[in-house]
């Protein structure tokens, strides 16, 4: 039995299929439709607008096909709450950082432009981790890592990453304030 009236409503909506059918359908339909509208893959009409009717039909078909793959719907239902939690954590971090700024508008990437790459990497790794957990692949990956932790594979991977980072630092283009002079790395006065 539900502890509250709203809890009963959520249980009813769960039994009704809102979380297993309706919301995954709407999510996939909306994402595919948005991508088709943005990319205009199916062409344009006479006025230069994307062909919305074709985009809608293909989005509808792809969303229905997605619903037929019940394992993918289950994985989506498992992974999306983790993605939302990561989003909430990211927003909380931005709020905490913005609290120390003046009353002007805070632009995270303008103020921390060099952090775009690492932040994007963390977000991508987090989303990939959420979906590998949801698909059930994480147990196999974790068991393989723990079984091979002392092998030369990880030493090679670590050394390869170290070499790539060092090469990236060495060949990094000069920043906007620097420009190479006639004698190599001299700055212009």
Shape: extended
User: How many helices?
Assistant: 8
**What portion of residues belong to β-strands?**
under 5%
Question: Tell me about the biggest sheet?
Answer: none
What structural category arises from helix and sheet content? Answer: mainly alpha
Terminal Cα separation, in Å? Answer: 77 Å
Features:
mainly alpha; extended; single chain
Summarize the structure in words.
The protein is built from 8 helices and no strands. It is mostly helical and 189 residues long. Helix content is 70%, strand content 0%. It has a domain at 1-68.
Secondary-structure blueprint:
Elements: H1 5-16, H2 18-39, H3 52-68, H4 70-98, H5 108-111, H6 116-135, H7 138-147, H8 152-170
Brief summary of the model shown:
The protein has 189 residues and is mainly alpha-helical. It has helices at 5-16, 18-39, 52-68, 70-98, 108-111, 116-135, 138-147, 152-170.
């Amino acid at each position: 039995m539900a502890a509250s009236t709203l809890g009963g409503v959520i249980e009813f909506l769960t039994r009704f299929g809102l979380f297993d059918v309706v919301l995954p359908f709407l999510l996939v339909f909306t994402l595919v439709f948005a991508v088709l509208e943005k990319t205009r893959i199916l062409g344009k009409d006479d006025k230069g607008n994307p062909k919305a009717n074709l985009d809608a039909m293909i989005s509808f078909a792809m969303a229905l096909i997605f619903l037929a793959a019940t394992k993918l719907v289950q994985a989506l239902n498992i992974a999306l709450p983790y993605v939302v939690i990561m989003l909430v954590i990211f927003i909380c971090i931005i709020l905490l950082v913005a609290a120390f700024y003046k009353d002007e508008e805070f632009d995270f990437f303008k103020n921390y432009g060099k952090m775009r790459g690492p932040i994007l990497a963390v977000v991508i790794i987090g989303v990939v981790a959420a979906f590998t957990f949801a698909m059930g692949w994480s147990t196999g990956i974790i068991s393989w890592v723990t079984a091979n932790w002392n092998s030369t594979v990880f030493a090679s991977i670590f050394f390869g990453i170290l070499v790539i980072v060092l090469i990236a630092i060495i060949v990094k283009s000069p920043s906007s304030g620097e420009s190479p002079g006639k004698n190599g790395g001299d700055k212009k006065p």
